[in-house]
Design a protein that fits this description.
The complex is a heterodimer of chains A (423) and B (494).
Chain A lengths: L1 H4 L29 H13 L6 E2 L12 H7 L2 H4 L11 H18 L3 E2 L6 H16 L3 E5 L4 H11 L6 E4 L10 H7 L4 E7 L10 H10 L3 E6 L16 E5 L15 E5 L12 E5 L5 E5 L6 H4 L12 H34 L13 E5 L3 H10 L2 E2 L2 E2 L10 E5 L6 H11 L2
Parallel strand pairs in A: 1-12, 3-4, 3-5, 5-6, 6-7
Antiparallel strand pairs in A: 2-8, 7-8, 9-10, 11-14, 13-14
Helix pairs in contact in A: 3-11, 5-11, 6-7, 11-13
Chain B lengths: L38 H5 L16 H12 L22 H7 L2 H4 L11 H18 L3 E3 L5 H18 L6 E5 L5 H8 L3 E5 L9 H7 L4 E7 L11 H10 L3 E6 L18 E4 L19 E3 L11 E5 L2 E5 L16 H37 L15 E4 L1 H4 L5 H10 L6 E2 L8 E4 L7 H20 L1 H5 L12 H6 L11
Parallel strand pairs in B: 2-3, 2-4, 4-5, 5-6
Antiparallel strand pairs in B: 1-7, 6-7, 8-9, 10-12, 11-12
Helix pairs in contact in B: 3-10, 5-10, 6-7, 10-13
The chains are: A alpha/beta (423), B alpha/beta (494).
Chain lengths: 423, 494
C-alpha cells in the first residue's frame, strides 16, 4: 500500500502537519491488553458494585426482568453494526423495526405519531417544551414539582438560553398529586405548556384530564411525561395530552448506572412537523412493494442547520429496538399482566408502611420515617438496597423516602423492609 | 464482474401487527407471590385503561423469526466495508459488548450507595483520565449522550465562562463545511451563526477569520481535520486570533480518529471539544444510536462543567454536586455509562501504541483509496487528506449520473455507499471514510466497484441511474413518504 502511495513510511502521511502540533511522545496509556485481561478487569469492577443485592430503588430507573430474546435480537450484527438508515434499500430491517416501535408507542400512549426515539426521558422534556414554544408562539413553561427532579434540572439548563421562563407548580401535600389550584393561579396567556408526570415522581397517578382542561382553557399545551413505561400497561393513556415525552428504560433496558436509555416524543398528527428527532415513514419502492424510509427531514439539522427543530442527530436506535422486542415478547396481555404484578407487589409492600401521600399509586410510593438513612443502613446489612431519601430534592420531605416494587421484588424481601418500619 | 454479491433468497416479512393472533404471547410471568390487587379499586376506574388496542400478540418463535428475518434486510459493518464519511464505521469488538453486560455494571442503579458503585465509578474515572490524555485537555465530563449533545454542553460552558467575565457575547463562527449539528447547537445555546467560507484548499480562510473575529464572537466551532479530511494547518494561528479577542476555540471531535496519538487538540489551542465514543472509540452505531459525546475542557472551563462531577475522596469515588458555577445538568444521572464501559475496553485493548497504530492505518487506508480512485473521480480539493476524502460527481454528472446514483449502484456491488452530498461545499459530494479496520483486499474490491461504475456511466448509464437492481427493495420513493406521511401502522377499515 505504501508503494501505491509512493511513500516509504506511514509517518509520511502526517508530514504536512505543522511540527508544533505534533505529539512527540507516546500517549500515556498502558500497553494493550488481551481479551482475557479485559474481561477480568471489568468482572472485578462489577464485583465492586452491588452484585447480588435486592433493591427497592425506582425514581426513574426500574428493575424489570429482561427477556432473553432482547439481547439475542440486539446482538444480531445486522442491527448492532449498522448506522442510521439513510440508505433505505439496504436498511429495511432497522426501518421496519422503528416503524413498529413508533406504532406501538402510539398504541400505548394514545397519541397519533411518535418519533424514532430521543436520548432519554430527561432530554425529551426540554425538547417537548421547545416544541410547544414553536407551536404556540408563547415562551412560558409551567412544570409540576412532582416531575422527576433531574428532568427539571435538565429542563432548566436548556431553558436558560431559549428565553423560556420556567415556573414550578406545587403538589398537594395531602395527596402528592398536582395542585390544580396552584396551576390555575400560575397559568397565564404567555404559557406555552404545562408539564406533568404520571405516575409522578412520588408514584402518584395524576388526573390528566383535569390538568389538560386547565391548560387548554388558557391556550396552552399539556405535556405528559412518564418515567415508568410499564405503567402504560394499566394506566389510562394520556389521550388528552398534546405531547407525550417519556423514558422507556423499563422496557428491557439495563439500568446500567443511568444509561444508555431511550426517550420518546409522541404527539398529535397536526403537530408532527414541529416534532424533533428521526421519524420513519411508509412508502413504496419502484416495484410497488411496501418500503420504509426516514422522512420529514426538512425539520432536521442536516438540512435546516440553525433553523432546525433541534440539534439532535443520533437517536437511540438499538435501545429502542430493545424496547420493541420487549413490547413484542410481552404483547397485549403480557404487558397488562406485568403491570398488574407491579401494582400488586407495590401495594403489598405499601400496606404495611406509613404512606406519606394518599393519592393512587402504581409501583412507587413515598413513606414517612424519622430517618431514611437509618432504615437504608439496616437494609444494606441484609443485602437489600432500600429507597431513595427525598430530602436532597425536596427539603420539606426530609423525613421521607421513595420506595419501588416491581415484578422482581420477592415477598420475603418486602417483609424484611416492612419489619424495619414496625415499631 | 460483481465480485462480492450474488442474489439469494431473502424472506418477506409482515409487520408484527399483521401476524398477530388473539391470545398469543411470548413470555410467561412467574405466579404472583402476593395477593392480586384489583386495578380499578387501586387506581380508580377513570385511571385504568381498557386493553391496548391492536398491540401485537405473537409467540416467542414468531417474535424471533420476525426480528431475525428483518435483520437480514440490513447491511452492516460485519458484512463488509461501510465507508460513510464522517461516521467512522469501524469494527465494533465484541468483548466490549460482553463486559458492558457484567451483572454488577449492567444492573447498577444510579442512586445505589456510592460505596456499592465504586467499580463503575472507577471505570468512568479511568475513561475520563484517558480521554483527557488523548485530547490533551485538563478535564472531561462523560454526561452528554451524543456528539450533538456534547456540542451543546461545550457551548453552554463557553457561554457561562464568558458570562462570568461580564458578557456572553452574541455569535458563533462556523465554517460552511461543518456538520449541521454545529449551527443547530448554536441556535439552542442562544447564539447567532456567522458562516465562514472555506478557501480553495478546503481550509478556513485565516485572513477572513481575522477580519470576522471581534468582541461579539464567543467562539469558533471547528472540526479538525475538517469534513474534507483536511487538517487545518493554520490551527495555532486560528487559535491565536480567537484568544487575542477573548473568544474560544471549540473543536468538534467527530474526526478525532485521524489524530489519536499523533496530535492533540489541547496542544493546538482548543479550549473545549467533544469526542464521539461511537466513532473514534468503536462503540456500536446500533442503527443510529446510542452514542456518547464526552466533552473535554481546559483548566479555565472546569468550574462550568455539568454536575455532578466525579471526585476522589479518602474512602473512594464520590459524586460532587456542590459546583456553584456549573452549567447544571444536561442529562439525568451520569451519561450513557454502558457506552463508557465499551470505550474503555477499546482503549485498554489497544493501549497507547495500538491507538496510534489505528490512526496510522485509518489514514493509510483513506489515502490508498484516494490514490486509486483519483484517475476516475474528480477530487475538488487537492490538499493532503487524513482519514477521509471527498470526491465529487462532476465527471459522472456530465453523463447524468449524480452522487446519489453512484451510491445506489455501489449497493449492487455489495457495499454500503459513502456519505452522499456532504459536506455542502462540494457539489455532488462523495465522502469516503474506510477506517483502519478494513483489509487491503476489501479496499481493492471497493476500488474495483467504483472504477466499474465509472465505466458503466460511460457505457450504459441507465444501469446506474436505476440502481439498485439486486436488492430486495428497489429504489424507495422518499418524496411521497414526506409529502403524505404515514408514520404508523393502522388496522384496515373493515
Amino acid at each position: 500500500m505504501l508503494r501505491v502511495l509512493g511513500i516509504d513510511s506511514l509517518d509520511h502521511l502526517f508530514a504536512h502537519l505543522p511540527s508544533e502540533v505534533r505529539l512527540n511522545r507516546p500517549l500515556n496509556i498502558p500497553a494493550g491488553k488481551s481479551e482475557y485481561e479485559i474481561i477480568d478487569y471489568f468482572r472485578a469492577r462489577g464485583a465492586e458494585c452491588a452484585e447480588g443485592y435486592a433493591s427497592f430503588l425506582g425514581a426513574g430507573v426500574y428493575r424489570h426482568y429482561r427477556p432473553v430474546l432482547v439481547d439475542t435480537v440486539v446482538s444480531r450484527s445486522e442491527f448492532l453494526t449498522s448506522y442510521t438508515p439513510y440508505q433505505a434499500e439496504i436498511s429495511q430491517g432497522t426501518l421496519t423495526t422503528i416503524f413498529e416501535f413508533q406504532t406501538m408507542l402510539c398504541q400505548l400512549t394514545g397519541m397519533e405519531v411518535a418519533n424514532a426515539s430521543m436520548y432519554d426521558g430527561s432530554t425529551a422534556v426540554p425538547e417537548a417544551a421547545m416544541m410547544a414554544m414553536r407551536l404556540t408562539g408563547r415562551d412560558r413553561i409551567l412544570v409540576a414539582r412532582s416531575v422527576h427532579p433531574e428532568y427539571r434540572e435538565v429542563l432548566s439548563t436548556y431553558a436558560r438560553h431559549q428565553g423560556m421562563p420556567v415556573v414550578e407548580v406545587d403538589y398537594e401535600i395531602e395527596t402528592g398529586a398536582l395542585d390544580a389550584s396552584d396551576l390555575d393561579k400560575k397559568i397565564d396567556g404567555q404559557t406555552a405548556a404545562v408539564i406533568i408526570q404520571s405516575p409522578n415522581f412520588f408514584g402518584i397517578v395524576e388526573e390528566v384530564r383535569r390538568a389538560a382542561g386547565i391548560a387548554h382553557r388558557n391556550g396552552a399545551l399539556l405535556i405528559y411525561v412518564f418515567s415508568e413505561a410499564v405503567s402504560l400497561g394499566l394506566v389510562e393513556p394520556p389521550g388528552d395530552a398534546d405531547i407525550v415525552a417519556g423514558e422507556l428504560q423499563s422496557f428491557a433496558i439495563s439500568p446500567s448506572y443511568g444509561g444508555p436509555f431511550a426517550g420518546i416524543i409522541a404527539t398529535k398528527e397536526k403537530f408532527m412537523r414541529q416534532m424533533p428527532g428521526r421519524v420513519v415513514g411508509e412508502t413504496k419502492d419502484t416495484r410497488g412493494n411496501r418500503a420504509f424510509c426516514l422522512t420529514l427531514a426538512a425539520r432536521e439539522q442536516h438540512i435546516r442547520r440553525e433553523k432546525a427543530t433541534s440539534n439532535i442527530c443520533t437517536n437511540q436506535a438499538l435501545v429502542a429496538l430493545m424496547a420493541t422486542v420487549f413490547m413484542t415478547v410481552y404483547g397485549k396481555q403480557g404487558l397488562r399482566e406485568l403491570a398488574e404484578q407491579n401494582l400488586s407487589k407495590a401495594h403489598y409492600l405499601a400496606q404495611k408502611l406509613p404512606l406519606r401521600f394518599s393519592g393512587p399509586f402504581f409501583n412507587e410510593f413515598v413513606v414517612s420515617t424519622p430517618s431514611p438513612d437509618a432504615i437504608n443502613h439496616s437494609l444494606l446489612e441484609q443485602g437489600i438496597i432500600g429507597g431513595l431519601p427525598l430530602g436532597r430534592y425536596y427539603p420539606e420531605l426530609e423525613n421521607s423516602m421513595l420506595l419501588c416494587a416491581t415484578e422482581m421484588s420477592r415477598r420475603h424481601e418486602m417483609d424484611t423492609v416492612a419489619q424495619l418500619f414496625t415499631p | 464482474m460483481i465480485k462480492k454479491v450474488r442474489p439469494h433468497v431473502n424472506q418477506n416479512e409482515l409487520l408484527l401487527f399483521e401476524r398477530s393472533s388473539p391470545g398469543k404471547r411470548g413470555y410467561q410471568l412467574p405466579p404472583l407471590d402476593v395477593p392480586a390487587v384489583d386495578p380499578v379499586s387501586a387506581l380508580g376506574a377513570q385511571n385504568t385503561r381498557a386493553e391496548i388496542a391492536d398491540f401485537p400478540e405473537v409467540s416467542e418463535v414468531e417474535a424471533i423469526r420476525h426480528f431475525t428475518r428483518l435483520s437480514t434486510h440490513n447491511y452492516a459493518i460485519d458484512l463488509g466495508l461501510y465507508p460513510l464519511g464522517s461516521c467512522t464505521m469501524k469494527y465494533n469488538p465484541r468483548v466490549n459488548e460482553q463486559v458492558a453486560r457484567m451483572d454488577g455494571l449492567a444492573w447498577a442503579h444510579p442512586y445505589q450507595p456510592e460505596s456499592l458503585a465504586q467499580g463503575i465509578m472507577q471505570v468512568m474515572a479511568t475513561l475520563e483520565q484517558m480521554l483527557a490524555e488523548i485530547a490533551g485537555m485538563d478535564a472531561v465530563t462523560l454526561q452528554p449522550a451524543a456528539g450533538a449533545h456534547g456540542e451543546f454542553t461545550g457551548i453552554l460552558m463557553v457561554r457561562a465562562w464568558l458570562q462570568s467575565q461580564g458578557h456572553p457575547r452574541k455569535k458563533l463562527l462556523i465554517p460552511d463545511s461543518a456538520h449541521g449539528t454545529n449551527p443547530a447547537t448554536a441556535a439552542m445555546a442562544g447564539y447567532a451563526v456567522e458562516n465562514i467560507q472555506s478557501n480553495a484548499m478546503g481550509m478556513v480562510d485565516v485572513e477572513q477569520l481575522a477580519r470576522m473575529v471581534d468582541e461579539d464572537v464567543a467562539a469558533l466551532m471547528l472540526t479538525n481535520p475538517n469534513t474534507l479530511g483536511v487538517f487545518e494547518e493554520h490551527i495555532t494561528r486560528i487559535a491565536g486570533i480567537l484568544h487575542a479577542k477573548g473568544a474560544q476555540l471549540y473543536i468538534d471531535g467527530a474526526n478525532m480518529n485521524a489524530l489519536v496519538g499523533i496530535a492533540r487538540p489541547g496542544d493546538f489551542g482548543a479550549d473545549v471539544m467533544h469526542l464521539n465514543l461511537h466513532k473514534t472509540f468503536s462503540t456500536p452505531h446500533g442503527g443510529g444510536g446510542p452514542g456518547s459525546g464526552p466533552v473535554a475542557v481546559k483548566q479555565h472551563l472546569i468550574p462550568f462543567l455539568p454536575k455532578p462531577r466525579l471526585t476522589r475522596r479518602n474512602d473512594g469515588w464520590s459524586w460532587n454536586y456542590d459546583l456553584p458555577q456549573s452549567i447544571g445538568r444536561v442529562r439525568a444521572f451520569y451519561g450513557n455509562v454502558g457506552m463508557h464501559i465499551r470505550a474503555l475496553a477499546y482503549i485498554m485493548a489497544h493501549g497507547g501504541d495500538g491507538l496510534r497504530n489505528a490512526t496510522l492505518d485509518a489514514v493509510l487506508n483513506s489515502n490508498y483509496l484516494r490514490v486509486l480512485l483519483e484517475p476516475y473521480y474528480d477530487l475538488p480539493h487537492q490538499a493532503p487528506t487524513l482519514h477521509e476524502c471527498v470526491f465529487s460527481d462532476a465527471r459522472q454528472a456530465r453523463r447524468g449520473a449524480r452522487t446519489g446514483d453512484i451510491a445506489k449502484r455501489l449497493i449492487d456491488y455489495g457495499f454500503h455507499p459513502y456519505t452522499v452530498s456532504f459536506p455542502l461545499i462540494v457539489p455532488g459530494a462523495m465522502m469516503i471514510e474506510p477506517t483502519e479496520t478494513e483489509s487491503k483486499a476489501e479496499l481493492d474490491l471497493f476500488v474495483d466497484a467504483l472504477i466499474s461504475i465509472a465505466k458503466e456511466i460511460e457505457e450504459s448509464p441507465d444501469l446506474v441511474l436505476n440502481a439498485p437492481h439486486d436488492t430486495r427493495t428497489s429504489r424507495v420513493d422518499e418524496v411521497t413518504a414526506a409529502r403524505k406521511p404515514i408514520l404508523r401502522w393502522k388496522p384496515e377499515l373493515k
